[in-house]
């Protein structure tokens, strides 16, 4: 049998170039960045500022806002100003949903990153018979896109700001659709076309996304993108997300299936979980995915058995109590086990263990070492005392 040291189970991330977004860096080996988007109307300056601060305080490292009109772009100048004056310079990303360059150019003055959707750069009239585009037609439109995009690219380049080329499966441009079909290939080619325009203007501060609402589609698109970038010698970081994931348990599972699968393969430098819930609900999901994969450790890792007929105490209740008492600590692993049936190894190398010993009593462990047996009623208190004695406690 072959054995593999634990250190070799760490995810090896794809090498990407660092892309600066204000004081945050995406890619280049930096921790995977967590982002989300406020759902306030950007014209509501006070409301937007409050929402941005709320999100940032709970760990949203880049906050996105939508900019559907020039008035919204101008409102962002006020939002940015207020943030700088009253709070801090949270990196902002602006979603520009139109190919209206005026909006993008205006907003590029106030935010650190502009997101554009290549699918919205449409210059052609719909083809009546869904016929394919000739090479000449294809290139001609490509040239128009280039002319339109150039001022924004130059502006972002000269300001040292970033751009996300955010392709969505649901909004591919018609000419891509007819040429490559409604496929991951079409999504990838769409991104590559915009990357080439940026590169020709010596702008490489780019992050790429290829979101879809169906997990297998987004997985294939991102993997194909990585393959194509490798072939082309490109090293742009990727922004991962499953669009329209919905809400509740399934929304979280769907997001995790898509984002987590890619992260486990070393793909992805920033993530957004899109839930049909308050944006604040997205942030813990992001951090949980990253923590579960060992990519970021921002909270206590609880190891707990599922309980069974041998369980010596109410595991659900005790786990809840232990979590409430210790969740503010970071960097610790705490195991809560109903019994020690297969030895302390089952506690997965946790720093501390709370283990059923005999009816009414539990044992506290430091690593694999049993430290003391205490009545169950004092278990949580004694666990805290042990952590304090080791100088690993901080008050909440
Ligand atoms: Fe049951 Fe003990 Fe295993 Fe928990 S650790 S599931 S109580 S055998």
UniProtKB/TrEMBL annotation:
Gene assigned in the entry: ispG
Keyword annotations of the record: 4Fe-4S, Iron, Iron-sulfur, Isoprene biosynthesis, Metal-binding, Oxidoreductase
Family stated for the protein in its record: Belongs to the IspG family.
Cofactor: [4Fe-4S] cluster
Function: Converts 2C-methyl-D-erythritol 2,4-cyclodiphosphate (ME-2,4cPP) into 1-hydroxy-2-methyl-2-(E)-butenyl 4-diphosphate.
Reaction catalysis annotation: (2E)-4-hydroxy-3-methylbut-2-enyl diphosphate + 2 oxidized [2Fe-2S]-[ferredoxin] + H2O = 2-C-methyl-D-erythritol 2,4-cyclic diphosphate + 2 reduced [2Fe-2S]-[ferredoxin] + H(+)
Gene3D superfamilies in the cross-refs: Dihydropteroate synthase-like, Sulfite Reductase Hemoprotein, domain 1
Pfam families documented for this protein: GcpE, GcpE_C
Biological process (GO), any one: isopentenyl diphosphate biosynthetic process, methylerythritol 4-phosphate pathway
E.C. code: 1.17.7.1
Residue span, IspG TIM-barrel domain: 16-287
Protein's recorded name: 4-hydroxy-3-methylbut-2-en-1-yl diphosphate synthase (ferredoxin)
HAMAP family the record matches: IspG (MF_00159)
Molecular-function GO terms, alphabetical: 4 iron, 4 sulfur cluster binding; 4-hydroxy-3-methylbut-2-en-1-yl diphosphate synthase activity (ferredoxin); iron ion binding
IspG C-terminal domain span: 301-388
Cofactor note: Binds 1 [4Fe-4S] cluster.
């Amino acid at each position: 049998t072959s054995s593999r040291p634990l250190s070799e189970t760490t995810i090896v991330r794809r090498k990407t170039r660092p892309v600066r977004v204000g004081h945050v860096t995406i890619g280049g080996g930096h921790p995977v960045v967590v982002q989300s988007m406020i759902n306030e109307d950007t014209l509501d300056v006070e409301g937007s500022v409050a929402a941005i601060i709320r999100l940032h305080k709970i760990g949203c490292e880049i906050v996105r806002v939508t900019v559907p009109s020039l008035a919204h772009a101008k409102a962002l100048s006020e939002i940015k100003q207020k943030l700088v004056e009253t709070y801090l310079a949270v990196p902002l990303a602006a979603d520009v949903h139109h190919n209206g360059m005026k909006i993008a150019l205006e907003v590029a003055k106030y935010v650190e990153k502009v997101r554009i959707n290549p699918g919205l750069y449409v210059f052609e009239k719909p083809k009546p018979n869904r016929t394919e585009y000739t090479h000449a037609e294809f290139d001609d439109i490509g040239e128009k896109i280039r002319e339109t995009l150039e001022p924004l690219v130059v502006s972002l380049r000269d300001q040292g700001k970033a751009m996300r080329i955010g392709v969505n499966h649901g909004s591919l441009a018609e000419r891509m659709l007819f040429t490559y079909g409604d496929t991951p290939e079409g999504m990838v080619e769409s991104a590559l076309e915009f990357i080439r325009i940026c590169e020709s203007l010596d702008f490489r501060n780019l992050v790429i996304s290829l979101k879809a609402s169906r997990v297998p589609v987004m997985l294939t698109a991102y993997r194909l993108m990585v393959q194509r970038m490798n072939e082309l010698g490109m090293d742009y970081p990727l922004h991962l997300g499953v669009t329209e994931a919905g809400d509740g348990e399934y929304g979280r599972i769907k997001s995790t299936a898509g984002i987590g699968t890619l992260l486990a393969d070393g793909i992805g430098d920033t993530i957004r979980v899109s839930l049909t819930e308050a944006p604040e609900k997205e942030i813990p999901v992001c951090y949980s995915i990253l923590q579960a994969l060992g990519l970021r450790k921002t909270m206590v890792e609880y190891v707990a058995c599922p309980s069974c007929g041998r369980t010596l105490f109410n595991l659900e209740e005790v786990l809840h109590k232990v979590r409430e008492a210790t969740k503010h600590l970071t960097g610790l692993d705490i195991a809560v086990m109903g019994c020690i049936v297969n030895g302390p190894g089952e506690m997965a190398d946790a720093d501390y263990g709370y283990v059923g010993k005999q009816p009414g009593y539990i044992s506290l462990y430091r690593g694999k070492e049993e430290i003391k047996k205490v009545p169950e009623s004092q278990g949580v208190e004694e666990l805290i005392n042990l952590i304090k004695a080791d100088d690993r406690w901080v008050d909440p």
